[in-house]
């Protein structure tokens, strides 16, 4: 994984090199000049710029300040900030000290052009071999080690495994120890690997560097983490460790000229434990037998695996990639000019069409029915960036968008099996067995738990219902339409919540008072679970039943211990165990309690669903039953436009219960 990324980065870097290279420099320093624009890590964060023109003005001023500092004083480190207004920019650049002043500026120039890809993100970073550039909307100069720190290993194993590991290992230990004590927090050094088999001597080169604005202790901490990350690269011939406040790199190929090496011995005196540990590792490996080597190799293999997983996020802000932009005319032809025949449905936010792209890929294209003001467009791009970064197997992937045509369009992955409502109430009613239904119940809970608790921004769906839960080829659930409610204009959100939610699924505190929390989704989820189990719509009164809405009916059956009577008659009774039915119905009723505080969080629900305990000790409180619901529902079926007044009218009746 790392290697692939690495190779990709090399490729990217090679492309960039050809782009930026200043011709005048070519003639003068063609041989030595190397700004080392090999891309190691990049990312953008925080897409919440509120005033783009102000932001870009600040960003440009900051970059030009950094450039002046690098050029006029030939320095290798600079910070600059523009804090006026509501979109402040703080920035930092650092070149490896072995670069010439010209190479440093060249590396910075490349980094600026790369980081501008973040466009209106108010955070971004680029880490090259030669330099590092970062900006954020708040100060970060003292940051040292952050989640996402990572070791990037080479792809060639050193020929003399033991001696190379020993030599490189002790070199890195020395650097880790000495660098925080050196003025400017930079050290470059090398170590000879003495060949035992006559295959030629090898030299290991290494550098360590901390941001000049961190403390000595901070530098130590950061390099300590970096050292641990690099250990798992050995015995590869190359390794780099990147983090917010420091950089550590070694290679068997010289990447700085010999006259840059420093004598770090004076800084190692009184070095204490780390130094001893280094020597011990060195000696043990150098003198050890085959067993030790095997052990080491095993250790490297094992310890390397998890590294691939914590990529990105190195500078604390979660990495967001921009959405893919599709061309309007491509989407128009993919959907046969948004023809009726390609229409998949009408969602709360606009119509959805099936589209076949030029490459044969089938997608779902949603035409957003929101105002196209500049403000709405800016919001749109921010939200779309956010949504397109949501990756979870129970959530529909947003593939990209199109904001350059007459309508705002969203492009989603296409689900051939359509939505859950068709399988529960619709044309294919009764075709899902018990196992499939419980899988859908658990998967939906997982998807919501991710949106609420695991994604770096809490996304409340606000409109969970069976028609928003799509099914993939193996009937696993994929929640659709999340994040879109945030696109509604600010001044409309409170009122429009009654539109955004669908009566019958909407939590009472949200429907009536507009009080929104993730527990509103918990409520809707509980209603959906009851629908899945019973095959009855929450808004429908069954003539054969007790003449009540689903929620009220479920509650009464629960109170009388008759849970099993709620189960869809199309299900085979041999398919499910009564105690499982009981558990799931009780979980659903926990979700629909009238007090949001009493409802469990979605991650708790996942645990409850998967657990074997039967919740006997949990006493449930009664849900709110909306008497007027019958009337409201009756009205909405004839005219959706009038539902606002009906919902408002029902308020007084509801609060009386
Ligand atoms: C190692 O990576 C370099 C570039 O990163 C590439 O040119 C080379 O082909 C790779 N070697 C192997 C054995 O994968
Ligand atoms: C954006 O900021 C600039 C000042 O940098 C100000 O003149 C302008 O009015 C602001 N625009 C908005 C929409 O706030
Ligand atoms: C900032 O700099 C970029 C690139 O030089 C330029 O395209 C853009 O217009 C500038 N923006 C402002 C607000 O100065
Ligand atoms: C260059 O260094 C001097 C002395 O340290 C300092 O006063 C000056 O502000 C620096 N110039 C720039 C452009 O940072
Ligand atoms: C953007 O969001 C981040 C984190 O949510 C916050 O720290 C920052 O101040 C925000 N920036 C602006 C310009 O609103
Ligand atoms: C980012 O910027 C660089 C340099 O300006 C450019 O070559 C590259 O294609 C852009 N896009 C990405 C995804 O890096
Ligand atoms: C390797 O280094 C050792 C000790 O520095 C030296 O004696 C030997 O001649 C070197 N071998 C080669 C092939 O350079
Ligand atoms: C270091 O060596 C390089 C060539 O390898 C040379 O261009 C440079 O001037 C040298 N620097 C010093 C300070 O001697």
Automatic annotation (TrEMBL):
<dbReference type="InterPro" id="IPR017441">
    <property type="entry name" value="Protein_kinase_ATP_BS"/>
</dbReference>
<keyword id="KW-0547">Nucleotide-binding</keyword>
<dbReference type="GO" id="GO:0004674">
    <property type="term" value="F:protein serine/threonine kinase activity"/>
</dbReference>
<feature type="domain" description="Gnk2-homologous">
    <location>
        <begin position="146"/>
        <end position="255"/>
    </location>
</feature>
<dbReference type="InterPro" id="IPR011009">
    <property type="entry name" value="Kinase-like_dom_sf"/>
</dbReference>
<dbReference type="GO" id="GO:0005524">
    <property type="term" value="F:ATP binding"/>
</dbReference>
<protein>
    <recommendedName>
        <fullName>Cysteine-rich receptor-like protein kinase 2</fullName>
    </recommendedName>
</protein>
<dbReference type="InterPro" id="IPR052059">
    <property type="entry name" value="CR_Ser/Thr_kinase"/>
</dbReference>
<keyword id="KW-0808">Transferase</keyword>
<keyword id="KW-0677">Repeat</keyword>
<keyword id="KW-0472">Membrane</keyword>
<keyword id="KW-0675">Receptor</keyword>
<keyword id="KW-0325">Glycoprotein</keyword>
<dbReference type="InterPro" id="IPR000719">
    <property type="entry name" value="Prot_kinase_dom"/>
</dbReference>
<dbReference type="InterPro" id="IPR008271">
    <property type="entry name" value="Ser/Thr_kinase_AS"/>
</dbReference>
<keyword id="KW-0732">Signal</keyword>
<keyword id="KW-0723">Serine/threonine-protein kinase</keyword>
<feature type="domain" description="Gnk2-homologous">
    <location>
        <begin position="37"/>
        <end position="140"/>
    </location>
</feature>
<dbReference type="InterPro" id="IPR002902">
    <property type="entry name" value="GNK2"/>
</dbReference>
<feature type="domain" description="Protein kinase">
    <location>
        <begin position="338"/>
        <end position="615"/>
    </location>
</feature>
<feature type="binding site">
    <location>
        <position position="367"/>
    </location>
    <ligand>
        <name>ATP</name>
    </ligand>
</feature>
<keyword id="KW-0812">Transmembrane</keyword>
<feature type="compositionally biased region" description="Low complexity">
    <location>
        <begin position="636"/>
        <end position="657"/>
    </location>
</feature>
<keyword id="KW-0418">Kinase</keyword>
<dbReference type="Pfam" id="PF00069">
    <property type="entry name" value="Pkinase"/>
</dbReference>
<feature type="signal peptide">
    <location>
        <begin position="1"/>
        <end position="33"/>
    </location>
</feature>
<dbReference type="InterPro" id="IPR038408">
    <property type="entry name" value="GNK2_sf"/>
</dbReference>
<keyword id="KW-0067">ATP-binding</keyword>
<keyword id="KW-1133">Transmembrane helix</keyword>
<dbReference type="Pfam" id="PF01657">
    <property type="entry name" value="Stress-antifung"/>
</dbReference>
<feature type="transmembrane region" description="Helical">
    <location>
        <begin position="279"/>
        <end position="300"/>
    </location>
</feature>
<feature type="region of interest" description="Disordered">
    <location>
        <begin position="631"/>
        <end position="657"/>
    </location>
</feature>
């Amino acid at each position: 994984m790392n290697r692939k990324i690495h190779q990709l980065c090399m490729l990217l870097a090679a492309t960039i090199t050809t782009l930026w290279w200043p011709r005048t420099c070519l003639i003068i320093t063609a041989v030595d000049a190397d700004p080392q624009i090999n891309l190691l890590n990049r990312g953008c964060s925080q897409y919440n710029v509120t005033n783009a023109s102000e932001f870009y003005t600040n960003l440009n001023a900051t970059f030009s300040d950094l450039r002046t500092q690098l050029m006029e004083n030939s320095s290798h480190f600079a910070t600059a900030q523009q804090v006026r207004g509501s979109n402040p920019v703080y920035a930092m650049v650092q070149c490896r000290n072995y670069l010439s002043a010209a190479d440093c500026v060249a590396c910075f120039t490349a980094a600026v052009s790369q980081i501008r890809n973040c466009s209106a993100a108010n955070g971004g970073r680029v880490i090259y071999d030669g330099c590092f550039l970062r900006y954020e909307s708040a100060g970060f100069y003292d940051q040292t080690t952050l989640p996402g720190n990572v070791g990037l290993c080479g792809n060639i194993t050193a020929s003399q495994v033991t001696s190379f590991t020993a030599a490189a290992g002790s070199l890195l230990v020395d650097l880790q120890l000495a660098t925080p004590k050196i003025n400017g927090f930079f050290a470059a050094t090398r170590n000879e690997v003495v060949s035992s088999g006559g295959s030629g001597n090898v030299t290991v080169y290494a550098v360590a560097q901390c941001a000049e604005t961190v403390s000595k202790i901070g530098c130590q901490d950061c390099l300590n983490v970096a050292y641990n990350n690099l250990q798992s690269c050995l015995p590869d011939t190359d390794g780099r460790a990147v983090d917010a406040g420091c950089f550590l790199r070694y290679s068997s190929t010289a990447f700085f000229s010999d006259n840059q090496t420093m004598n770090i011995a004076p800084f190692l005196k009184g070095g204490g434990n780390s130094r001893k540990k280094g020597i011990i590792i060195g000696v043990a490996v150098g003198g050890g037998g085959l067993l030790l080597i095997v052990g080491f190799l095993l250790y490297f293999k094992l310890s390397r695996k998890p590294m691939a997983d914590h990529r990105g996020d190195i500078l604390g802000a979660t990495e967001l990639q921009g959405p893919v932009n599709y061309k309007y005319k491509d989407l128009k032809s993919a959907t046969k000019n948004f023809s009726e025949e390609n229409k998949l449905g009408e969602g709360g936010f606009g119509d959805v069409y099936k589209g076949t792209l030029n490459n044969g890929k089938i997608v779902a294209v949603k035409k957003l029915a929101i105002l196209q003001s500049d403000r709405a467009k800016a919001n749109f791009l921010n939200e779309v960036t956010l949504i397109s970064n949501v990756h979870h197997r129970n959530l529909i992937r947003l593939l990209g968008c199109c904001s350059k045509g007459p309508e705002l369009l969203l492009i989603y992955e296409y689900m051939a099996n359509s939505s859950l409502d068709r399988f529960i109430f619709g044309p294919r009613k009764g075709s899902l067995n018990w196992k499939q239904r419980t899988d859908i119940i658990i998967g939906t809970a997982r998807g919501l738990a991710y949106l609420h608790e695991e994604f770096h921004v809490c996304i409340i769906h606000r409109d969970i219902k069976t028609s928003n839960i799509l099914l993939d080829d193996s009937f696993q659930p994929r929640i659709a339409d999340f994040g879109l409610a945030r696109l509604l204009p600010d001044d409309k959100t409170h009122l429009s919540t009654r539109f955004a939610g669908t009566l019958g699924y909407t939590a009472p505190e949200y429907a009536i008072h507009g009080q929104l929390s993730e527990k509103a989704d918990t409520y809707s989820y509980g209603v959906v679970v009851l629908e899945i189990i019973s095959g009855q719509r929450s808004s429908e009164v069954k003539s054969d039943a007790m003449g009540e809405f689903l929620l009220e009916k479920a509650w009464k059956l629960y109170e009388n211990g008759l849970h099993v009577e709620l189960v869809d008659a199309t299900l085979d009774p041999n398919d499910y165990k009564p105690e499982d039915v009981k558990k799931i119905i009780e979980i659903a009723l926990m979700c629909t309690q009238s007090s949001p505080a009493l409802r469990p969080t979605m991650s708790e629900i996942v645990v409850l669903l998967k657990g074997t305990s039967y919740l006997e000790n949990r006493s449930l409180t009664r849900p709110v039953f909306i008497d007027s619901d019958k009337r409201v529902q009756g009205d909405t079926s004839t005219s959706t436009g009038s539902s606002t007044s009906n919902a408002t009218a029902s308020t007084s009746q509801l609060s009386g219960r």
